[in-house]
Amino acid sequence: MSLTRSVTLAAVLLALVTRVAAEPPRADVDALVARAMTTFEVPGLAVTVVKDGRVVHIAGYGVRKLGESAPVEPTTVFGIASNTKAFIAAALAILVDEGRLSWDDRVIDHLPGFAMYDPYVTHEMRVRDLLCHRSGLGPGAGDLLSFPTSSYSTAEIVHRLRFIAPASSFRTTFAYSNLMFVVAGEVIRAVTGEGWDAFIRERIFAPLGMTASNTSVTALRASNNVVTPHERMDGTLQTVDYLNLDNVGAAGAINSNVADMAKWMLVQLDRGRLPGGEARLFSERQSREMWSPQTIVPTSDAPGPLAGLRPQFASYALGWSVRDYRGLKIVTHSGGLIGMTSRVLLVPEARLGITALSNSGTAATTALAWSLVDLYLEKPPTDWVAAFKEQVVKNEAEAREAVAKATAARPAASTPSLPLASYAGRYTDPWYGESAIALEGDHLVLRFGRTPGLVGELEHFQHDAFVARWRDRSLNADAYVTFALKPDGSVERFTMAPVSPATDFSFDFQDLLFTPVKKDSTAPAR
What we know:
By secondary structure, the chain is α+β, with helices and mostly antiparallel strands. It folds into two domains: 358 residues, DD-peptidase/beta-lactamase superfamily (Beta-lactamase, 3-Layer(aba) Sandwich); 97 residues, Lipocalin. The chain is 30% helix and 22% strand. Helix 2 runs antiparallel to helix 12, helix 3 crosses helix 8 and helix 12 runs antiparallel to helix 13.
């Protein structure tokens, strides 16, 4: 055997040893996924891991629908929800590369009709401001215009932004905002002459070969290999309908599978370079821009079981969250719909990417992603599945305790100030529009005018406060409805607030102020 051949063989053997060391056995990953699914009661889950420019793990687990046998496969489609936001950022980055807009263009230069509550913010809002949650709106402000599914058009939703009062000063405070990404989608339309969805299909999905990915619940329903969403209702995991987000699609309407998401992560980790050559989806400069911190996210001591996830810094970039973990930069995002969750987690320095998709509304995808980071980076393992489960149980117990405490504190003999019929009528809120309260039999029923799913019985709580028990129990969002009276005893207004502190922030009931519509008024709410 020649020396050259010996050296070559040694190099090959070393490469194989290195590869084995860098890639945990398939059985280890499968066991981790199985435990996460059991712990969080997940019917179906799909996972892909990319490392050093290639797919090193991809698999589906469990079933698409509880009670049926059709398996989840790598090609099975899920809603990725807010992981859509990174695609919107990439679409804008492509346009910046082409010189068709700048990150610091004023929004009104592309959308002359755009307006926020504060004229200064209207004038100064830049394209990059739309993507980093610093608009001054409160967390989830205005989400009730589309969530649950509403009949408002995208144009109507963007128009109604001008009626939502800010919660903080412009560019001072991180507060998650879906509606700003809706505006970003409209900027894409204004610049290109086509919708954000068509642009992403043509300029991102097609070049990457993301053939199963789509941008609408209509296309999701039409798929023959798609999961069914599941939520826990009254203590039992049940199937729920797909959430239609088409009117705010740029904030969260993309559907994909782990086979396609692997391609997305590979181009992200290669700084925009397309596989197989020098062609690019976007430039390295724009890659760095999208991953550069824009808005500081306050950090605090993580809850007990999650203490190991406390970052030294946390921020939001352009469509991505950026933080550290074990001395490494992490670029990540979560996504959550009713009945589906997603997590994309990138470790650029290690050329590692992880996507986990689930057909239930749990923390399983996030717990699994952090566990896989430890596994693939060969770090001392932390049982993140157990830690997240412990925190979920703790949060749920604290929420139940808060609700029970409020219920126990109410005076037992309290009664409404007025006959129930006196609370009935049409009401309007400046940004949401109309709702109606009707006396049906011996109880009141609240209906949001443009949101068919928000219908609930008003159960008396105390004095002039009621609890709206939504008929759709998958919402998990019962709300206090509190009336204020005028001196003459008639209703002046009603306000709302979530009953449970665990209510998703997109149910921004606290931002509503409904006042009676005058009896002779026929004009629609603005």
